[in-house]
Amino acid sequence: MSAPAPCLAEPSRCKRLKAASSRDHDSVDVQVMAARPFADLQRYACFLQVQHRFHGSLLGLYHDAELNRLLPGLADLSRFAAVRKDFNDLGLALPETPAAVQASAAHALGWLYCSEGSNLGAAFLFKHSQHLGLDASHGARHLAAHPEGRALHWRAFVEQIDALRLTEQEELQAQQGAIAAFDSYRAHLHAVFDARR
């Protein structure tokens, strides 16, 4: 893997990642809303646990030296610290940092694509959180828009991913990483919310 490629004559890598993982993405969206995470603060607290498990497991990827070489500024994008601040805002006990995802650089690109892409969907979630009296400075920090705006931030990340030169095997690994990320999030969602039933 190397970065960056001078130009791409093929369709966007992120579009291919989206196509490969769209079924998983849609499934997670449906299951998140079915869990009714904004019905009350108790259910939102469960949602924060899910977010803590997922974003905490990715912390190592965001701070990985090789990935930061390929994607400059990556270390600043993790939302895990914001999730932990949301716990503090609501007076919730902080769980231990979860075990880190172990992934090759190519595989990690799919995980990061999933994580950063969720920022776009977070606009919808952030709006719902406001009905609970939460906002960007209290309880819903990790759902708030990036200072540069969600769309601009996402486009910049996509440009970085699309500019990388990958082998066919690395392309496949990136797609597998995206699917694995959605599978992981779904597993966290069920583990937390099923325990409430």
Automatic annotation (TrEMBL):
Cited InterPro entries: Haem_Oase-like (IPR016053), Haem_Oase-like_multi-hlx (IPR016084)
Coiled-coil residue windows: none
A biological process from GO: heme oxidation
A Pfam family that the UniProt record links to this protein: Heme_oxygenase
GO molecular function, one term: heme oxygenase (decyclizing) activity
Protein name (record): Heme oxygenase
Gene source species: Pseudomonas cremoricolorata
CDD domains membership: HemeO-bac (cd19166)
